[in-house]
């Protein structure tokens, strides 16, 4: 399955608003519909955040439960990954609300960084606590890495036994305050992984598609979606997540690799049928 490429769609995030793009989904129904559209376009994993109906970020279990149930009721077998990052300023307790029944993966942010004009706080005790909860719930962790020092935290977590197998890395490049989306940075990070792991890249804003192309060339996977980038071309808003997924799928095809189905993504990422426990 070495040539299979996983496309993840980050459908909404916590920051982007409908004032910036009318395509941003807010309600659980809209987020589920956007997720199913992304899956139909070729995404095998969806990265989920939730919102209150007025657009404010939410990590409420009730919202996540409704999104997950609606995705499954629509007949989609997409891999469901829930954010434990939430939004800047949320407490760890609040952030952990997303780990509901039906989630298969969860993000684990490996450090504190400036996030635009704000600070996204992930102290080492916070990370250990979130990693513990992900492990308890039988979910597969995706470690979010925004800066080189976070690879040292990854190494430390592994040495101390805080991070269970399987885990998977995501390099998030282009957040103002983190490493930028350059070839040099991605190669440096991939070479610095403590041991071989599956990895993917989320290029933020204009870095989205160049990083997707580079990742595909280097053997990595790809994340796109409105959480990371609103545009399909300079000054042209995407009509929906599915347009960004379609652009990523075209790049997978152009790279000579094949698109992983959700079942293949589960096999690659070590998400076992029946292994992921119900969480409530
Ligand atoms: N909203 C960002 C502050 C994650 O999903 O785990 C954090 C974030 C990362 O989006
Ligand atoms: Zn996110």
N/C terminus separation: 33 Å
Secondary structure tally, helices: 9
Please identify the top-level CATH class. Alpha Beta
Average pLDDT score: 96
Instruction: Could you tell me the CATH topology label.
Output: TIM Barrel
As a whole number of angstroms, the C-alpha radius of gyration is 17 Å
Coarse morphology = globular
Portion of residues within helices: 25-40%
Strand content: 15-25%
Largest sheet: 8 strands, parallel, barrel
Uncertain runs with pLDDT below 50, 5 residues or more?
273-280
* Molecules bound to protein: (5S)-5-amino-3-OXO-hexanoic acid, zinc ion
Strand order of the largest sheet: 2-3-6-7-10-11-12-13
Secondary-structure element sequence? EEHEEEHEHEEEHEHEHEHEEEHEH
Number of domains: 1
Describe it for me?
The protein has 280 residues and is an alpha/beta fold. It has a single domain (4-269), classed as Alpha-Beta Barrel (TIM Barrel). 35% of the residues lie in helices and 21% in strands. It contains 9 helices and 16 strands. It has helices spanning 28-40, 61-73, 92-95, 124-136, 149-159, 183-191, 208-218, 241-255, 262-269, and strands at 4-5, 7-10, 45-48, 50-51, 57-58, 79-82, 105-109, 113-115, 118-120, 140-145, 167-173, 199-203, 221-224, 231-233, 236-237, 258-259. An 8-stranded parallel beta barrel has the order 2-3-6-7-10-11-12-13, surrounded by 7 helices. α1 runs parallel beside α8 and α7 (208-218) packs parallel to α8. The radius of gyration is 17 Å and the shape is globular. The model is unreliable at 273-280 (pLDDT under 50). Bound molecules: (5S)-5-amino-3-OXO-hexanoic acid and zinc ion. (5S)-5-amino-3-OXO-hexanoic acid binds next to β7.
